[in-house]
Design a protein that fits this description.
This protein is mainly beta and 480 residues long. It has 3 domains: 4-153, Jacalin-like lectin domain (Vitelline Membrane Outer Layer Protein I, subunit A), CATH 2.100.10.30; 163-303, Aligned Prism (Vitelline Membrane Outer Layer Protein I, subunit A), CATH 2.100.10; 346-477, Jacalin-like lectin domain (Vitelline Membrane Outer Layer Protein I, subunit A), CATH 2.100.10. It contains no helices and 35 strands. The chain has strands spanning 3-7, 11-12, 17-20, 26-34, 39-47, 53-59, 66-69, 77-85, 94-102, 122-127, 133-140, 144-155, 162-169, 174-177, 183-191, 196-205, 208-215, 221-225, 233-241, 250-258, 263-267, 272-277, 281-290, 294-303, 346-349, 355-364, 367-377, 380-383, 387-388, 395-399, 406-416, 423-432, 440-441, 446-464, 468-477. The strands form 6 sheets. Strands 19, 20, 21, 22, 25, 31, 32, 33, 34 and 35 form a 10-stranded mixed sheet that branches. Strands 1, 2, 3, 11, 12, 13, 14, 23 and 24 form a 9-stranded mixed sheet that branches. Residues 5-153, 162-303, 334-477 form the Jacalin-type lectin domain. This is Jacalin-type lectin domain-containing protein.
Amino acid sequence: MARMYQKLAPCGGEGGREWDDDVYEGVKKVYVGQDLTRITFVKFEYVKEDGQVVTREYGTITQNPKEFALEYPDEHITVVEGSYNKVAMYATEVITSLVFKTSKGKTSPTFGPNLFGVVNGTKFVFEDEGKKIVGFHGRSDKAIDALGVYFVQDSLTTSSPLYKLEARGGTEGRVWDDGACNGVKTLRIGQDDSRITYLEFEYEKGGKSETRPHGVKGEKLSEFVLDFPEEYIKSVEATYDKPSFFRNTVITSLKLETSKGRASIFGYEVGKKFVLKQNDHRIVGFHGKEGEAIDALGAYFAPVPTPDPVAPAPVPADPAPASPAPVPAAPAPAPAAPAPTPVIGDPWSDDIYDGVKKIQIGLYDEGVSFLKFEYIKGNGLVSGDGHGKITSLGVEEFVLEDGEYLMASLEGYYKLIPNTPFGKIVSLRFKTNKRESPLFGKESGEKFSLEQKDQKITGFHGRATDVIYDLMFSSRHISI
């Protein structure tokens, strides 16, 4: 029987590198190091399901770390208290104290600089009604910049574990929770000139579609449709802020990224950023807070399903030998190693900008061989890298005028490469808010069309070597 794990957002600063230990059966020991101003080092001894002990450590050792041992398996950590603050010579906040409490009522010493137990900085507490802490995550470099925890929740009837990532954003509004479903099929997003005001999710649950609305709908919605079940949401990057003339801190932007490499941005990237993501997992539900807008957002994650293995075709039995003499059986050949999944072309990505100003396209006798984009960033222009190879046919240009932008629409033709599951792009056509480009390349092969309504293109990514094999775009909601 699987479990659900509650992942609480880290407290502390935004410096250092992110790390995540995930979850274990329990914690056996904790080691903490410090200097005169901060926590510089943590080390955790975890116990896996099979009893194996693994260690994870972060930061730097400046003094001998102090140990806090538990009577595992009869004792576990239930509370972590601490503080974070800016200290001399460092630009960002770091963890300045830590205290651990256990299921047997035991409390660790106050780790970190303190005078008679008094610490400086903003205090925090991780606690959930006596539930067991089974993992840690955070940020670190030369010190411990931030720390978060995993709590084990109730057992599930499913065979796969679930992760419930804490809703982040504002603290006001009504709590809503859609729970975990089989997957997400469609999102509808409403916004005004400063906030995400509405979210509507269409889920797949038990073979049926269920729709859950949140916030205030407004007049116009953007729609983000997934190719369910082959495509799923890998992560949501969001910002939150307290816009002028509004009472609450709310979600101001959302960036959705899918397993097929699609990315779309809605709203305005203003305020503090957070990311809802769990490695090797997919989003299967959302929760948060709502009022006149979306105040906070969290998500449920489930493992990415593995495809069912294809059973080999039965081998017909050999006919009986003509001779009655026994024939010794030949030894069975060793099974062949599975063939690696083939990949064609080198991946490239031009990042995400405010828009596109110019497209350069190179052709060869069978299709598109070269692409280069010039992007708009603020009041300036950024020239992207060239992808593919320029041939003797040279390069054609498609330049956008002032006030013109690329719609999130891409069409053209592609042709399969013989004896492979891959294709290469034969031709491309782009669409703006004012016109369509010519068809660059040939009108032959299989036609394709990609489109996101009410979106404009803000970046491209794909695969290429001497030709262009694949092209996708990132987009965001059109601000009018």
